[in-house]
């Protein structure tokens, strides 16, 4: 039987949505300049959190199997935004800072195994973006490629950044725009299920991007939207790296709405504006289903 991951988003007003996935809930929102109130991370940034968490978790798994010591791990993920719609991440950089590693080459070998064979988010996003990785080891000199990037200035208008800190087992805490979010795996994988999984965050990113587009476009169309929720289902491949192969995005809109206007808004998000969809559909079959007042 195919494993299916489900995520639901409920509109809270303005550009904010409550996300429910894998028994966890959190809020996504847009920045003030985009019509939101910055109540939670931006949807596109969740992609970077998803990637960083996936890389970190799978790396910790491989390090454990190879008996490679790593006292602590910090991950910084940066994405450079394209200049035209749909706005995607043209380039993504993953900076790994490892503490207490004795054999640096074995650590890098472990990362290659995790990246190529186990991390589904990396396998998916690498089809849409150029992803590069840099290593820094705490007992060595600062690397020349900027692994301490989180301490340097950057332009948030052109680049998004997420910092993830390892907490315990496979649990990572992400920080971006002053928002904190835990990402984790269940006890089945040897962790504590303290937050949504990286794949769950990827679906949340897709849903958040789509839903915010639709609310914004319907407002411009002078449509009276009263309620909106999205139900997203992702089918997971049986074999490693267990990517999400198919995604159904079910959009439920209610209010004094013209169905053709809602369909137009959904189509504009899918085909023109949602950068998350533009990236994810490079690796997955994404299907949109629209339900108006039903």
What's the helix and strand layout?
Blueprint lengths: L2 E11 L2 E6 L2 E5 L14 H23 L6 E10 L7 E11 L4 H15 L1 H6 L4 E8 L21 E10 L2 E6 L2 E5 L14 H23 L3 E13 L7 E13 L2 H15 L1 H6 L4 E8 L2
Parallel strand pairs: 5-6, 11-12
Antiparallel strand pairs: 1-2, 1-10, 2-3, 4-5, 4-7, 7-8, 8-9, 10-11
Radius of gyration: 19 Å
Helix-and-strand structural type: alpha+beta
**What share of the residues lie within helices?**
25-40%
The CATH topology label of the largest domain is: GMP Synthetase, Chain A, domain 3
**Approximate strand percentage:** 35-45%
Mean pLDDT: 94
What is the straight-line distance between the termini?
30 Å
Enumerate how many helices there are, as a single number. Answer: 6
Could you give a short account of the major beta sheet? 6 strands, mixed
Number of strands: 12
At CATH level 2, the architecture of the largest domain is 2-Layer Sandwich
Strand order of the largest sheet: 3-2-1-10-11-12
> Could you name the CATH class of the largest domain?
Alpha Beta
Question: Can you summarize this structure?
Answer:
Helices cover 30% and strands 36% of the residues. The protein is α+β, with helices and mostly antiparallel strands and 294 residues long.
């Amino acid at each position: 039987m195919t494993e299916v991951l489900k995520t639901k988003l409920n509109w809270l007003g303005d550009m904010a949505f409550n996300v429910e996935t894998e028994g966890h809930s959190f809020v996504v929102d847009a920045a003030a300049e985009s019509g939101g109130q910055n109540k939670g991370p931006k949807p596109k940034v969740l992609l970077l959190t998803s990637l960083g968490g996936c890389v970190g978790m799978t790396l910790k798994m491989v390090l454990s199997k190879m008996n490679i010591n790593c006292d602590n791990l910090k991950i910084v993920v940066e994405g450079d935004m394209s200049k035209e719609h749909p706005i995607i991440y043209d380039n993504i950089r993953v900076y790994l800072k490892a503490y207490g590693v004795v054999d640096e080459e074995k650590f890098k070998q472990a990362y290659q195994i995790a990246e190529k064979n186990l991390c589904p988010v990396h396998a998916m996003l690498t089809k849409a973006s150029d992803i590069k990785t840099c290593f820094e080891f705490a007992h060595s000199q600062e690397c020349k490629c900027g692994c301490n990037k989180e301490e340097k200035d950057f332009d948030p208008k052109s680049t998004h950044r997420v910092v993830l800190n390892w907490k315990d087992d496979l649990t990572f805490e992400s920080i971006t725009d002053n928002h904190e979010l835990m990402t984790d795996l269940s006890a089945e994988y040897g962790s504590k299920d303290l937050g949504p999984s990286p794949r769950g965050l990827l679906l949340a990113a897709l849903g958040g991007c789509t839903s915010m587009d639709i609310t914004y476009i319907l407002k411009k169309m002078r449509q009276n939207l009263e309620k909106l929720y999205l139900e997203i289902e992702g089918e997971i491949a049986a074999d490693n790296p267990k990517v999400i192969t198919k995604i159904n995005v079910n959009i439920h809109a209610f209010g004094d709405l013209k169905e053709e206007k809602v369909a137009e808004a959904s189509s504009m998000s899918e085909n023109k504006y949602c950068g998350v969809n533009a990236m994810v559909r490079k690796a997955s079959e994404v299907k949109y289903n629209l339900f108006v007042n039903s």
